[in-house]
Amino acid sequence: MRKRAIKMRLLCAIVILAIVMLACHSETYTPFRDVEVSMICFRYSLMDSTQICVRNRKRIREITETVRLVPKEQCACAHSVEVVFVIGEEEHSAYVCSHCFDLMGETVENYRMPEDFLVYCHSYRDSTHLSERWESPLYLSRQKRAREESRGE
Ligand SMILES: [Zn+2]
Predict the structure, then answer these.
(1) How far apart are the C-alpha atoms of 124 and 54, rounded to whole Å?
(2) Quick one: 51 and 16 in the same domain?
(3) What's this model's pTM, rounded to 2 decimal places?
């Protein structure tokens, strides 16, 4: 009889743990994990005419892995850094600051800035030698594809 009670308690604990884990998991949104992002461009000022674009697939995967988004309330601060994720023929923009990651869709979705992603934002901002002239990321990714095709990749 006692054994059965312990078993029941254990079962309850496992069920509760599973529910909690599921609830936590569903709160984290990973929009770029299972899609093929071909390029990520960082624009550090909307007034700027330069951007830093990441085209290396391995590096892109490393960066997109860090985009684990947790919803938050909208804040009133200025988000002057734009990060553009190119997926196929689509550009997905996020306007970010040190604590916000606002994903632009049909509406603006407000998320907390993932700490690991912020590290990338800072390190690229400091890599000014990588700056290039501002162009539409879609235009750049088409150029890249054309170059790869001409090399037969
Ligand atoms: Zn903010």
Answers:
(1) 9
(2) no
(3) 0.77
